[in-house]
Sequence to fold (107 residues):
Amino acid sequence: ATYQDNVKKFLKLLEGIANRQARFRCVCAVALPDSYNLPLKIFEGVCSGVIADKPKGESGFGYDPVFIPDGFDKTFAELSPEEKNKISHRAKALIKVKEFLNQMNIK
Fold:
């Protein structure tokens, strides 16, 4: 199935559902060499929002055309890549990974 097929099916399943709250979640794991003597580190990023009634926008992929992040009136697919990359679940998780690696002084 294409992304468009999946979005169409998804919206069909949501017909009549009033609570359309949703979230994207990304989890990143960092495993360091034994010399660091640290367990596996897990970092999570979440972007909450709602599912729109119909697809809007041309950017992004997957469910981006129907996901409206909290605080915005546009879907992920309508946001510029710069806007999306500041608030996305992936960006939030990777910022935490970067902060951890910087704290550990790992380049």
Remarks:
- The radius of gyration is 17 Å.
- The chain has three helices and three strands.
